[in-house]
């Protein structure tokens, strides 16, 4: 049940008084914002967490004052007349200080109550990850863990499929076994039937370990030796540079599959013996 249904009114009044006393700019943040938003597992109570501009010298005994250079409009909202962080920014904020189980419950309740979406969480994670905050990486790890538990395609794989479809590419096969690396099967994210083109989404981590890099290189080398043409794209490339990713795949179709391609943000394909019945879009 959402904690928004059991917010103590005297605490709500005390928080409103605190924020009014501090003055703008000031927002409820962290666990205080989570309780106001109604995340499961959070109850509104002192000490209150508030966020204000870094150039202000604000201290309040009995409460926790955080500072920041700026909070974009997209990361702000109001509830009960109180300024606070948006649900997505609140998830990123509390991710620093709670364990993965509590964060998973908060994410689930935010999705359930319509406070955020998977797409929007990934957009804000990617926008904020370069700031040095712990929150984006921890939230991303929880999202990845939930996907592994659920099984099926990850958000990143679904996003690649969406981008390919919107650009006019033929539908690729997914999770296809194309070979072996030592005693392990090589299962690729996407393979376009009738071609040797393979597309791999490298996952959510923007810093891959030495062991992960070795596995990636061994897989790519094996695929190349077996006659495939593997293309690899990072999380950031999919989210931030989709047009570049699509143009690269389009070039692979033209060079390695003999299919003339015309790109806009995506591509236009002309029929060929290797990919029959592909419509010419222009």
Task: Outline the fold blueprint.
Layout: H1 9-22, E1 26-28, H2 30-37, E2 49-53, E3 64-68, E4 76-79, E5 82-85, H3 87-94, H4 100-112, H5 118-128, H6 135-150, H7 155-167, E6 173-181, E7 184-191, E8 197-201, H8 210-225, E9 229-233, H9 235-240, H10 242-256, E10 261-263, E11 267-269
Helix pairs in contact: 2-3, 3-4, 3-6, 4-6, 5-6
| Biggest pleated sheet | 4 strands, mixed
- Helix/strand/pairing class, anyone? alpha+beta
> Which radius of gyration do the C-alpha atoms yield?
23 Å
Helical stretch count? Answer: 10
Number of domains: 2
Beta content comes to 15-25%
Strand order of the largest sheet: 6-7-8-9
Q: What distance lies between the first and last C-alpha atoms, to the nearest angstrom?
A: 53 Å
| SSE succession | HEHEEEEHHHHHEEEHEHHEE
Q: pLDDT below 50 for ≥5 consecutive residues: which ranges?
A: 263-267, 269-282
General shape: elongated
Task: Count the beta strands.
Answer: 11
Features:
282 residues; alpha+beta; Endonuclease, Chain A; four-stranded mixed β-sheet; 10 helices; 43% helix
Question: Can you give a write-up of this model?
Answer:
The protein is an alpha+beta fold and 282 residues long. The chain has two domains: 3-150, no CATH class; 156-241, 3-Layer(aba) Sandwich (Endonuclease, Chain A). Helix content is 43%, strand content 19%. The protein has helices spanning 9-22, 30-37, 87-94, 100-112, 118-128, 135-150, 155-167, 210-225, 235-240, 242-256; strands at 26-28, 49-53, 64-68, 76-79, 82-85, 173-181, 184-191, 197-201, 229-233, 261-263, 267-269. The strands form four sheets. Strands 6-7-8-9 form a four-stranded mixed sheet, with helices on both faces. Strand 8, helix 8 and strand 9 (229-233) form a beta-alpha-beta unit. The radius of gyration is 23 Å and the shape is elongated. The model is unreliable at 263-267 and 269-282 (pLDDT under 50).
């Amino acid at each position: 049940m959402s904690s928004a249904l059991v917010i103590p009114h005297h605490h709500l009044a005390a928080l409103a008084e605190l924020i009014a006393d501090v003055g703008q700019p000031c927002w409820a943040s962290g666990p205080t914002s989570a309780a106001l938003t109604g995340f499961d597992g959070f109850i509104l109570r002192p000490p209150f967490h508030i966020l204000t501009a870094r150039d202000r010298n604000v201290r309040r005994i009995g409460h926790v004052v955080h500072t920041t250079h700026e909070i974009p409009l997209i990361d702000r909202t109001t509830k009960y007349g109180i300024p606070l962080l948006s649900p997505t920014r609140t998830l990123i904020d509390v991710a620093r200080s709670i364990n993965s189980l509590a964060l998973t419950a908060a994410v689930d309740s935010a999705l359930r109550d319509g406070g955020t979406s998977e797409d929007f969480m990934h957009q804000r994670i990617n926008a904020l990850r370069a700031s040095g905050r712990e929150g984006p990486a921890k939230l991303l790890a929880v999202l990845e863990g939930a996907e592994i538990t659920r099984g099926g395609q990850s958000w990143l794989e679904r996003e690649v499929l969406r981008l390919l479809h919107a650009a006019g590419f033929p539908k690729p096969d997914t999770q296809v076994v194309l070979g072996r690396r030592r005693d392990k099967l090589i299962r690729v994210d996407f393979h376009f039937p009738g071609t040797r083109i393979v597309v791999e989404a490298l996952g959510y981590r923007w810093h891959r370990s030495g062991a992960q890099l070795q596995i990636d290189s061994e897989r790519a080398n094996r695929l190349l030796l077996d006659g495939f043409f593997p293309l690899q794209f990072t999380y950031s490339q999919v989210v931030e540079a989709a047009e570049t990713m699509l143009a690269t795949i389009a070039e692979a179709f033209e060079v390695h599959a003999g299919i003339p391609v015309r790109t806009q943000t995506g591509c236009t394909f002309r029929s060929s013996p290797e990919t029959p019945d592909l419509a010419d879009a222009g």
